[in-house]
Amino acid sequence: MSNSSQTNNEILDGRIIAHLGKALIVEDSAGNTARCYKRSQLEKPAVGDKVHWIQIDDDAGRVESILPRQSLLSRPAKNGKIRPVAANLDQVVVIIAVKPRIDALLLDQYLVVCEHQDLTPLIVLNKCDLLDEKSNQKTQLLIDDYTKLGYTVIKTSALQNDGLTPLIEKLQHKVSILVGQSGVGKSSIINALLPDLSIQTKTLSTASGLGKHTTTSTSLYKLPGGGDIMDSPGVNIFGLVNISEHGLADGYREIKQYANQCKYANCLHIKEPHCEVKAQLEKGNISDGRYQRYLKLREKLSY
């Protein structure tokens, strides 16, 4: 372990800050790091997991147990399995951009997961410098659907260094993960938020023993003003893991708002009679775009 010579079998507290190859980088309360592997029978760990571990030698150890998680984001893996990605988050920062295009279905999927996990979502509209009059009007109509539901939307241009101050304020003293489809400028935002990114990356690479930081691994970085952000390159989608049909409906705030007024308790708001959600949709109190995306996510859920 860096800056330590302790090599006994004392149980230590730590937190996983990176998962690089088979190596887990564990940080202790003093900020020292160790390259660890997990006990063979242990469940799959995630970055952000709080763990008990023991030190094997000066800079290596073994994770003995994973402490109870406050939250867990997972993604689909091969052979129908689920792979944990990030644990013990406070909020999910969903980055969207007008170019290449705003994937509203993916945005809704992120938001459903947040509602299901009781995580705070934060929507960041990046590349605002690319908005022209026509695209700005169309984008604003979409954004209005979310702000009316109580979601916070921050407009930024990472390349122009615009809008970053309110984003930094929202990230302070919280553990956040940045997610978004390819091309939305996630890397530009991370570089703007972390002026010492290369130093932190080098520290993780050195600790891993790989000599090079892989670009497809989740890592946790410390923000200068306090707080942590996780970056998960190559992971632009989290599956609707363990979410039922009714759980999906509850993940839409406007559907949840009116669902208890439906005649039937098991109403799924599709073709059932006396459905208050459909009634509010017809009155214009529920966004048709959001409702259509709810139906599409239902198809994905059954698939």
Average of the residue pLDDT scores: 88
Task: State the CATH class of the largest domain.
Answer: Alpha Beta
Please, how many domains? Answer: 3
- The CATH H-level superfamily of the largest domain is P-loop containing nucleotide triphosphate hydrolases
Order of helices and strands: EEEEEEEEHEHEHEHHEEHHHH
User: Any idea what the radius of gyration is?
Assistant: 21 Å
In the CATH hierarchy, the architecture of the largest domain is 3-Layer(aba) Sandwich
Helix and strand composition category? alpha/beta
Strand content: 25-35%
Low-confidence stretches: 2-6
Number of H/I helices:
9
Count every beta strand, where a strand is a DSSP E run of 2 or more residues.
13
Tell me the strand order in the biggest sheet.
10-9-8-11-13-12
**Helix fraction bin:** 25-40%
Which fold name fills CATH's third level, the topology of the largest domain?
A: Rossmann fold
Could you give a short description of this structure?
The chain has 303 residues and is an alpha/beta fold. The chain is 30% helix and 25% strand. Strand 2 (23-27) and strand 3 form a beta hairpin.
Plain-language structure description:
This protein starts with 11 loop residues before the first strand and ends with a helix. The radius of gyration is 21 Å and the shape is globular. By secondary structure, the chain is an alpha/beta fold. The longest helix has 15 residues, at 133-147. The protein folds into three domains: 12-66, Nucleic acid-binding proteins (OB fold (Dihydrolipoamide Acetyltransferase, E2P)), CATH 2.40.50; 86-231, Rossmann fold, CATH 3.40.50.300; 245-302, Ribonucleotide Reductase Protein R1, domain 1, CATH 1.10.40. The chain has nine helices and 13 strands.
